[in-house]
Amino acid sequence: MQKNINTDTKDLFVGIDLGGTFVKIGCFSEKMEMLSKISIPTDNDRPKATMNSVVNALGSLLSQAGLRMEDIKAAGIGCPGVLDTKKGMIITSPNLPVYKGFSISRYVSEKINAPCILENDANVAGWGEYVLGAAEDVDDMVLLTLGTGIGGAVITDGKLIHGAGNSASELGHIIIYPEGRECGCTQRGCAETYASASATAKRANEMLAEGAASSLQDIFIERGDVSCKEVYEHASQGDRFAYEITELTAKVIGLLCVNIFSYSNPDKIVFSGGMIAAGQALLDRISFYFNKFIRKDIDVKIEFCFANLREDSGIIGSAALARDTFCLV
Ligand SMILES: [Zn+2]
Fold first, then answer.
1. Is 300 left (phi over 0), alpha (psi -120 to 50) or beta?
2. Which CATH number fits domain 138-307: 3.30.2010.10, 3.10.150.10, 3.30.470.10, 3.30.420.40?
3. Where does the secretion signal sit in this chain (predicted)?
């Protein structure tokens, strides 16, 4: 898709990644070259104080780089949770409960005197990959973040999908096993209750507690639990139990991708989050199960790959989304 952007070369774009522990702030040129970045602690109890600190930190960041607040053309804020993106406020966010109902984007917009957009963190990361990362060559893509839960972003014909109540693209809550494991969302059998990094570790720990034979038992006995990373490490070293745990993870993600294909038919599904440290073996097994379960009556073209932007995806994605929301012509 041809993207025409109405900006001057001196225009600045700000990306803010509002997390439960830290806020990352980045300043970018119109071509999304990072000019400077900083990280400050999040005040979980005082939203206004946090956003005041963000604006102050941004001011210092700009002056250190010889840049001016007046040159900020737009800002984007990414944060976890279900959001009202039209009002720029959080509807529900487990890590930032006190921020509920606070119009973050309007508050920041008034402080910096430039338009500001608030967007879900997975959507922001997806937009970053779409504009500047692993999916920059396609118009239809899906991002799946494999971490504590499974987050998602769906971009179709160059647009993020939000849905009527802003809860579209919560792909980790697609049900894979009816009447399966209980999910935090109150449904049962959601993909993320089996295949997130946390759920993968949880399934391993449950079976290790029952005495499953595995090279992971030494760690489990010493520490009381094993991590998802350790499960993948032991699987790659030939431990059968660890391998079976990772196989169910790959099977559930493969099934999830089959459902995603039927829903939005993306050119690419991009994976991000801590679990992608498992590397090519993870992609290969997801592809295996996708190919096993996908319909065979049509020509299915899809590519699975890892995200490119990594730890700065939140600030890059939100700055790019701000630019493309307010300056794309
Ligand atoms: Zn769920």
1. beta
2. 3.30.420.40
3. none
